[in-house]
């Protein structure tokens, strides 16, 4: 047993101060500051891999394309300030408001899940959506899987009301995608965005899934849904035009990817779509999109034309 020794007054003061600092440090470690509240975000224009993206509110989106996975080095929070969980039913899209609720279907096997779009991405213009490893495992999704994204309009409008959409937009800081810049880009002469198609009705077994309105801690359960497999045809969509001459000009720009003009009539409105494909492999589609972007068609996208 060691004999006890009385400390001098200066030494005792030093020991007391060190003990106070250590206790304060432990208190900070075990009682972290509360996480900031989830925010409603319509991000600023951002640039990655040769393409500008312009986020906007899209409550009833219905699109097809290719999926990929969220980066393994994702930060602790998403772009709308939600805690990032690699097992959550969570995803990223490039040009929509955050958060947004959607049904994601793997068109190759018919598996579907209801998830929340909480992040901005993916960086590659060849991919429509990036999903967490948890979503990928549930739906058997890997990079290049053909998918369909259908927004839940009622849930998205409810999120706007709940989170005060438009007020207090948060900075996009999670999952950096490269330097973000802003610039005003003029559309091609004679070009005009094609009229948005009406939302396609969801199959009865998907429509019956209850809409979960929630609080700011909304977390969707990993519930596997069943949809009809429809791998369709992998195509390159190089733009829709109301003017045939503008469509022909775009097609001539993309002769090296086999672009051609498809005339489509809806009532009295006529739209000219510039398309290329179908592509047998994802690699050939990715290469065609890269050539289209290099030739100036930076709005070109890969889509799945459903049967």
Main beta sheet, described? 6 strands, mixed, barrel
Work out the radius of gyration.
25 Å
Average pLDDT for all residues: 79
Q: H/E order of the elements?
A: HEEEEEEEHEHHEEHEEHE
Structural class: alpha+beta
Terminal residue distance? 86 Å
- Poorly predicted ranges (pLDDT <50, ≥5 residues)? 1-35, 166-217
Question: What fraction strand?
Answer: 25-35%
What is the percent of helical residues? 10-25%
The general outline is globular
How many helices?
6
> What is the strand tally?
13
How are strands sequenced across the largest beta sheet? 3-7-4-6-5-8
What does this structure look like?
The chain has 307 residues and is an alpha+beta fold. 22% of the residues lie in helices and 26% in strands. The chain contains 6 helices and 13 strands. Mean pLDDT is 79; it is low at 1-35 and 166-217. The strands form 3 sheets. Strands 3-7-4-6-5-8 form a 6-stranded mixed beta barrel. Strands 11-12-10-13 form a 4-stranded antiparallel β-sheet, covered by helices on one side. Strand 11 (260-266) and strand 12 (269-279) form a beta hairpin. The chain has helices at residues 9-30, 133-139, 153-163, 204-207, 244-253, 282-294, and strands at residues 46-48, 51-53, 62-69, 90-93, 100-106, 111-120, 129-131, 146-151, 224-226, 233-241, 260-266, 269-279, 301-305.
């Amino acid at each position: 047993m060691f004999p006890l020794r009385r400390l001098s007054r200066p030494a005792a003061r030093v020991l007391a101060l060190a003990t106070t600092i250590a206790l304060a440090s432990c208190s900070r470690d075990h009682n972290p500051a509360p996480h900031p509240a989830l925010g409603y975000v319509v991000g600023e224009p951002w640039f990655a891999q040769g393409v500008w993206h312009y986020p906007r509110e899209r409550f009833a989106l219905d699109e097809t394309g290719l999926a990929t996975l969220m980066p393994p080095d994702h930060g602790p929070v998403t772009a709308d300030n939600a805690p990032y969980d690699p097992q959550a039913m969570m995803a990223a899209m490039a040009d929509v408001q955050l958060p947004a609720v959607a049904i994601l279907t793997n068109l190759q096997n018919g598996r579907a899940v209801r998830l929340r779009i909480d992040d901005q991405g993916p960086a590659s213009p060849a991919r429509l959506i990036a999903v967490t490893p948890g979503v990928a495992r549930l739906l058997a999704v890997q990079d290049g899987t053909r998918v369909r994204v259908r927004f839940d309009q009622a849930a998205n409008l409810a999120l706007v009301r709940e989170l005060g959409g438009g007020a207090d937009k948060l900075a996009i800081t999670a999952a950096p995608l490269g330097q973000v810049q802003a610039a005003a880009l003029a559309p091609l002469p004679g070009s005009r965005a094609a009229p948005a198609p009406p939302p396609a009705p969801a199959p009865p077994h998907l429509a019956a899934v209850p809409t979960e309105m929630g609080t700011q801690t909304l977390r969707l359960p990993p519930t596997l849904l069943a949809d009809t497999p429809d791998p369709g045809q992998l195509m390159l969509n190089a733009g829709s035009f109301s003017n045939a001459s503008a469509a022909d000009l775009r097609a001539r720009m993309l002769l090296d990817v086999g672009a051609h003009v498809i005339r489509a009539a809806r009532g009295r409105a006529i739209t000219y779509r510039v398309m290329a494909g179908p592509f047998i492999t994802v690699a050939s589609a990715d290469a065609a999109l890269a050539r289209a972007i290099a030739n100036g068609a930076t709005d070109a996208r890969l889509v799945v034309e459903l049967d």
